[in-house]
């Protein structure tokens, strides 16, 4: 059993879960682990009209004990070929680091990630190959699908 | 007919002067409830307004400003926080 | 050779001749054919049989019995005895000293043939009467026992003394009674005579009792006669033959004495009963069996066994009533416990009580409050009866599940809990520690689940295990454990507290503060946080009100308004009434609110106009009346103040409310003769009361904020909205359920039913779906093609 959860964090995470469930947005979803509310599983679908259309990725969300004063740690569990994602699933996104704000929540994070998929930032790449190919969206998609079939498809 | 009210026992609810049913962006609790660290709302758990007109539970904002990531900015708009007078 | 035949009875000469022949034969050692001893005895017996039969003829019996049961029977025995003596003498001459037994056996057979049911019945009657009288003697005249010792046959005295020694140390022997100790308590004397059997010998018994009670010499005579009769029974060999009559008499006596104790639960009686029964049985043993060592104390054992069985039966059948009567019936419980432990019949008792309760208590005719009271009595009673609590658990199960099914159970318990005179309040205030959420835990019915932390109960209760915590739990804990969590109680208490606080007119809430402190002790401080805020609101409101009063005085404003200001999130939502506050009243509110905002910057007030109570002074043309009314009712009058006669539609428009609402509020004033209907739905103020009936407009007592001036017809807010709202809420709840299930499955993949159920319970607040309900819900989703079930796992489509 994990260490007892601070009541404030639990309350906040619980209310985030309720809002997520009520909002019922398309393409993004997340749910906490039953044995530890600080760890969630997320599911992200690529937005239509982007290179990631039709693809689905699993994420691991890990909330610190002083959430929301510190950002959660988000990693791709499904291998993701993207300029700002490394081979371990780590993500380079400003709001998850120095641009984090206490008013962000799971919903905003997942929406930002979904946006990131369709709108990469090739300037600070964790995956050079992907960054280089970004300008050629057609080719990018081909390589992406190949990568997805090989590594991501279950 | 002449009417005089000699005594009136009434009930009223108090609320902070913020839009109804709003929640504090930091703790997600309604403003009219207290912050997660407090038990009693009201004078013991007041709100704080910024010059940017964003409002939070005072305790929540102070906690935010006390953390590294905050850079002393308003969590909503990232402008340097100045408390409204 | 003597020709023997039954129709040819033996004469005295015959007997002599036979005797000589036998003697001669036995001397020579030559076998003798012809009339044998058995044959001779048979013939003798035949002769006497007829004689005995003549004695036992029905009419003769009836006559004797009719005149006097007791003495008549003695006479009868004596007549039998003289026949016996004659027979005996002749038989012993035939048989000789070595063959006596043949004669005895023949007599036994004779008795068997002669004594029919009629006689046996009479014998039982005689015994019952005599034994009752023996008991009565001792009860009535204990101080004359000394006389008995001197007056009675010493042989009989010795027998009785031995008998009473054998009956146990608790029984004082006849000799010891001389010291004046009474064997049984005096207040039972009346009940002996008052025994209302449909007993035909009732009057004779009464006469006999009266005779012995009046004169101690009569006791001596009686006992001598009785002892003599018993001796005859033995001699005449009737005892073994008539065992059923004997046991029958003893049984009747036991039963009669037990029955006397029916519904007498205020004193312990088992010991006394035991003593009395033993006395009687020991007496019989002594008088009838004194010379047969093997059968000693036969009746003693028999009577004791029957006593315990019958008494047990009686009390068990009365147990339901005993519980209802508790605590007045405490004494009966100790007795019952002794019995049941001895009979090893705890479990039967438990089941019989459970059935009684199910039939007589758990039905729609009983109020929840009654059922709770009886449950609490049962807890206390049954714990006295069985400290291991097994019986309680067996009996309580149906009560608890029935209580769970009643909607007002929680509120009844909470009401009782907070009323300071009740025992539950004591439990609340006790230092027993915080009640845990343990649901139905604390008890299992199967050995498989038992582990070393659970205590198995005595052998009788093989399959019931209780934790020590459960067994020692106080009444309040047991009641709370009827439900899975204590939340329901806390919520009900919150509701109750809110109601009470709204009802106070001044800001004093000492009693409520005490109640909250008590609740904290047993339910934990965390659970009561909302209540603390409520109490703080009251204190805060008082300060605010004082400030407003001072400020109003400074400004020379009239301020009749006193507000209770609540923190919205912590008080249950108020009922809403849709109407516009009249200017006069709104002005007052606004002034108050303005002063509040100065005191508490950045805060605003929202008036809850459905609550509250306005004390109005109404000056009419010919009278002045004071009435307490709801704000909406007051609003009607203010509207009428400007336009004294108004149609309903106009009134509704002015008050910005529905016509139904306006009408219901008008009715309040119609009932009090302040307003009258002059035309269909047109109302006017009654300035002059022509009917001369002032009583109708008498001032009503000031009510608290909770419900001033509430009348029957005021509370017909549209219930239609209620029903629609409920079904909307249901649809909303279903949608949320589905979103949750979808979220789980999308992120964790296919899941089995129990995982889904446990995760719902963890993350969806207020969730209490059962597995069955969930299964049907998921089946519904599957039918709507949203998910599918494959290999025991649910999957999104």
UniProtKB/TrEMBL annotation, chain A:
InterPro entries: Ub_conjugating_enzyme (IPR050113), UBC (IPR000608), UBQ-conjugating_AS (IPR023313), UBQ-conjugating_enzyme/RWD (IPR016135). Its EC number is 2.3.2.23. It is an enzyme of class 2 (transferase). Pfam families: UQ_con. It comes from the Eukaryota. The keyword Nucleotide-binding applies. CDD domains: UBCc_UBE2C (cd23791). Belongs to the ubiquitin-conjugating enzyme family. This is Ubiquitin-conjugating enzyme E2 C. It comes from Coemansia spiralis. The lineage of its organism: Eukaryota, Fungi, Fungi incertae sedis, Zoopagomycota, Kickxellomycotina. The gene is UBE2C.
Automatic annotation (TrEMBL), chain B:
One of its GO terms (molecular function) is ligase activity. Transmembrane segments: none annotated. The keyword Cell cycle applies. It is found in: Nucleus. It comes from Coemansia spiralis. Its main location: nucleus. Pathway: Protein modification; protein ubiquitination. Keywords: Cell cycle, Cell division, Ligase, Metal-binding, Mitosis, Nucleus, Ubl conjugation pathway, Zinc, Zinc-finger. The gene is APC11. This is Anaphase-promoting complex subunit 11. One of its GO terms (biological process) is anaphase-promoting complex-dependent catabolic process. Residues 35-78 form the RING-type domain.
From TrEMBL, chain C:
Residues 438-670 form the Cullin family profile domain. Residues 694-703 have a biased composition (Low complexity). GO terms for cellular component: anaphase-promoting complex. One of its GO terms (molecular function) is ubiquitin protein ligase binding. GO terms for biological process: cell division; metaphase/anaphase transition of mitotic cell cycle; protein K11-linked ubiquitination; ubiquitin-dependent protein catabolic process. SMART domains: APC2, CULLIN. Pfam families: ANAPC2 (PF08672), Cullin_AB (PF26557), TPR_ANAPC2 (PF25773). The keyword Cell cycle applies. Keywords: Cell cycle, Cell division, Mitosis, Ubl conjugation pathway. It comes from the Eukaryota. Residues 694-726 are annotated as: Disordered. The keyword Cell division applies. InterPro entries: ANAPC2, ANAPC2_C, Cullin-like_AB, Cullin_homology, Cullin_homology_sf, TPR_ANAPC2, WH-like_DNA-bd_sf, WH_DNA-bd_sf. Belongs to the cullin family. This is Anaphase-promoting complex subunit 2. It comes from Coemansia spiralis. The gene is ANAPC2.
């Amino acid at each position: 059993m994990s260490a007892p959860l601070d009541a404030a964090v639990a309350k906040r995470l619980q209310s985030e879960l309720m809002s997520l469930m009520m909002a019922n947005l398309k393409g993004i979803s997340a749910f906490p682990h039953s044995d530890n509310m600080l760890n969630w599983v997320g599911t992200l679908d690529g937005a239509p009209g982007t290179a990631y259309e039709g693809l689905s990725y699993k994420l691991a969300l890990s909330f610190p004990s002083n959430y929301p004063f510190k950002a959660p740690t988000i990693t791709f569990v499904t291998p993701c070929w993207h300029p700002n994602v490394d081979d371990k699933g780590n993500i380079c996104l400003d709001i998850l680091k120095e641009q984090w704000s206490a008013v962000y929540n799971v919903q905003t994070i997942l929406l930002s990630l979904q946006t990131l998929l369709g709108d990469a930032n090739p300037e600070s790449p964790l995956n050079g190959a992907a960054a280089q190919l970004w300008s050629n969206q057609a080719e990018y998609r081909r390589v992406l699908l190949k990568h997805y079939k090989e590594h991501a498809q279950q | 007919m002449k009417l005089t009210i000699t005594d009136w026992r009434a009930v009223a609810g108090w609320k902070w002067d913020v839009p109804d049913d709003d929640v504090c962006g930091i703790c997600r609790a309604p403003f009219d409830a207290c912050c997660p660290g407090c038990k009693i709302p009201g004078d013991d758990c007041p709100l704080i307004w910024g010059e940017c007109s964003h409002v939070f539970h005072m305790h929540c904002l102070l906690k935010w400003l006390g953390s590294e990531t905050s850079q002393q900015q308003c969590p909503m708009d990232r402008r340097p926080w100045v408390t409204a007078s | 050779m003597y020709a023997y035949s039954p129709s040819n009875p033996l004469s005295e000469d015959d007997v002599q001749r036979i005797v000589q022949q036998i003697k001669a034969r036995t001397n020579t050692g030559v076998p003798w054919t012809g009339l044998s001893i058995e044959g001779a005895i048979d013939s003798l017996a035949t002769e006497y049989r007829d004689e005995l039969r003549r004695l036992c003829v029905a009419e003769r019996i009836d006559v004797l019995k009719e005149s006097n049961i007791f003495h008549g029977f003695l006479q009868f025995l004596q007549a039998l005895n003289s026949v016996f003596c004659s027979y005996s003498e002749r038989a012993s001459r035939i048989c000789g000293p070595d063959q006596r037994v043949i004669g005895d056996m023949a007599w036994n057979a004779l008795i068997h043939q002669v004594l029919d049911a009629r006689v046996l019945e009479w014998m039982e009657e005689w015994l019952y009467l005599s034994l009752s009288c023996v008991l009565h003697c001792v009860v009535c005249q204990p101080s004359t026992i000394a006389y008995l010792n001197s007056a009675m046959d010493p042989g009989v005295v010795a027998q009785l003394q031995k008998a009473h020694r054998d009956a146990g140390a608790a029984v004082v022997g006849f000799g010891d009674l001389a010291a004046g100790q009474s064997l049984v308590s005096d207040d039972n004397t009346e009940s002996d005579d008052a025994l209302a059997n449909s007993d035909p010998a009732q009057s004779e018994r009464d006469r006999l009792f009266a005779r012995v009670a009046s004169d101690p010499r009569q006791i001596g005579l009686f006992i001598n006669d009785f002892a003599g009769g018993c001796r005859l029974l033995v001699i005449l060999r009737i005892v073994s033959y008539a065992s059923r009559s004997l046991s029958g008499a003893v049984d009747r006596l036991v039963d009669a004495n037990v029955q006397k104790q029916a519904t007498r639960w205020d004193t312990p009686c088992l010991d006394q009963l035991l003593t009395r029964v033993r006395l009687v049985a020991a007496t019989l043993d002594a008088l009838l069996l004194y010379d047969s060592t093997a059968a000693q104390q036969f009746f003693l054992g028999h009577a004791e066994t029957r006593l315990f069985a019958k008494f047990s039966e009686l009390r068990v059948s009365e147990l339901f009533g005993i519980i209802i009567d508790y605590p007045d019936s405490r004494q009966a419980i100790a007795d019952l416990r002794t019995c049941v432990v001895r009979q090893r019949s705890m479990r039967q008792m438990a089941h019989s009580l459970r059935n009684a309760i199910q039939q007589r208590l758990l039905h729609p005719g009983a109020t929840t409050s009654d059922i709770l009271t009886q449950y609490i009595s049962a807890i206390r009673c049954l714990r006295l009866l069985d400290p291991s609590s097994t019986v309680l658990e067996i009996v309580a199960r149906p009560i608890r599940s029935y209580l769970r099914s009643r909607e007002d159970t929680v509120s009844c318990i909470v009401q009782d809990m907070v009323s300071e005179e009740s025992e539950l309040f004591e439990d609340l205030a006790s230092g027993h520690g915080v009640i845990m959420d343990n649901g139905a835990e604390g008890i299992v019915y199967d050995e498989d689940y038992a582990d070393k932390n659970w205590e198995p109960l005595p052998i009788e209760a093989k399959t019931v295990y209780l934790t020590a915590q459960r067994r020692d739990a106080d009444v309040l804990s047991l009641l709370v454990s009827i439900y899975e969590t204590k939340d329901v109680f806390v919520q009900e208490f919150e509701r109750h507290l809110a109601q009470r606080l709204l009802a106070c007119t001044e800001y004093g809430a000492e009693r409520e503060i005490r109640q909250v402190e008590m609740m904290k002790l047993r339910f934990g401080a965390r659970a009561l946080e909302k209540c603390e805020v409520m109490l703080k609101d009251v204190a805060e409101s008082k300060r605010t009100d004082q400030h407003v009063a001072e400020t109003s005085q400074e400004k020379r404003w009239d301020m009749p308004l006193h507000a209770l200001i609540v923190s919205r999130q912590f008080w249950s939502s108020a009922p809403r009434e849709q109407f516009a506050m009249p200017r006069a009243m709104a002005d007052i509110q606004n002034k108050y609110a303005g002063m509040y905002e100065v005191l508490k910057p950045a805060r605003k007030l929202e008036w809850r106009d459905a609550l509250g109570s306005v004390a109005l002074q109404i000056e009419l043309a010919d009278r002045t009346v004071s009435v307490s009314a709801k704000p909406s009712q007051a609003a009607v009058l203010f509207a009428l103040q400007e336009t004294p006669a108004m149609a309903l539609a106009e009134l509704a428009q002015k008050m910005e409310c529905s016509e139904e609402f306006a009408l219901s509020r008008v009715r309040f004033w119609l009932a009090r003769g302040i307003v009258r209907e002059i035309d269909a739905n047109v109302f006017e103020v009654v300035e002059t009361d022509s009917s001369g009936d002032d009583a109708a407009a008498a001032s009503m007592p000031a009510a608290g904020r909770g419900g001033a001036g509430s009348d029957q017809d005021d509370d017909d807010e549209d219930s239609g909205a209620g029903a629609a709202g409920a079904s909307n809420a249901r649809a909303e709840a279903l949608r949320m359920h589905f979103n949750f299930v979808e979220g789980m499955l999308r992120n964790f993949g296919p899941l089995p039913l129990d995982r889904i159920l446990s995760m719902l319970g963890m993350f969806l607040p207020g969730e209490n779906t059962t597995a069955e309900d969930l299964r049907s819900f998921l089946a519904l989703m599957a039918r709507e093609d949203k998910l599918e079930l494959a290999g025991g796992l649910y999957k999104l489509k």
